[in-house]
Design goal:
The protein is of the alpha/beta class. The protein contains 7 helices and 9 strands; from the N terminus they run H-E-H-E-E-E-H-E-E-H-E-E-E-H-H-H. Helices cover 41% and strands 16% of the residues. It is globular and about 80 Å long.
């Protein structure tokens, strides 16, 4: 009886060890699963520009990118305080809520003006409040996050290629935040803080610096 009991105990231990090994394998597989990005154009966007954004994200991040069908702007995101705009934070929340399980991060893309509330390090509305409570932005993405949004409204330029370059840089920047990248002190890196100036976007390169690349590994 003791011998049979010992064998049964040994078998249980072996099965338990196999179960733990399988569990570790599954966790590692999930951890190293290739992430999938998507571009969600809102109605009225230039289809060619949407394709350009998707191709640029593939080039910079080396991840698969899906292009979704155009959709209306999210309900409840429109405001008309200083001018007709859409709240970027509400767009981001809506994109996250509708995110399919097969997609890890989605970039919303619109030609309408978008805005957010700028806050200081204490979480208060930045002074002067009348200026920053509803502040127009090029794009917005949380770090880390499931969704972000980019608008062409404030990126326009007489030179079409210059305009396209701006759009690509902002798209790469906002998805970078979703992937966990902070603002970068490198003045040539696309993750540099725009600091409320379009000239900053024009000055950076359409690439990640080596330090930012290492953060993604």
């Amino acid at each position: 009886m003791c011998l049979r009991s010992d064998r049964r105990g040994a078998l249980i231990r072996v099965r338990y060890a196999l179960f733990l090994a399988f569990l570790v394998f599954c966790l590692q597989a999930c951890e190293h699963r290739v992430k999938t990005l998507a571009v969600q154009p809102f109605n009225g966007c230039d289809a060619a520009l949407v394709d350009t954004i998707a191709a640029t994200l593939v080039e910079i991040y080396g991840l698969p990118v899906l292009t979704l069908k155009p959709s209306p702007m999210p309900d409840g995101s429109f405001i008309n305080v200083k001018s007709p705009r859409y709240r970027a934070d509400k767009i981001i929340a809506d994109l996250k809520a509708r995110l399919p399980d097969s997609i890890d991060h989605v970039l919303g893309f619109t030609h309408f003006d978008i805005s957010t509330t700028k806050r200081d390090e204490n979480g208060n509305v930045k002074d002067p409040a009348y200026k920053y409570e509803d502040w127009g932005v090029f794009g917005l993405g949380y770090r880390p996050g499931a969704s972000c949004v980019v608008s062409t409204f404030r990126l326009k330029h007489a030179n079409k290629q210059h305009f396209i370059d701006r759009v690509k840089k902002v798209a790469v920047h906002e998805i970078g935040h979703n992937l966990g990248l902070p603002h970068c002190p490198n003045t040539e890196c696309v993750m540099q803080d725009a600091a409320e100036s379009i000239s900053t976007i024009d000055g950076v390169e359409l690439k990640l610096c080596e330090a930012c690349k290492k953060m993604l590994l």
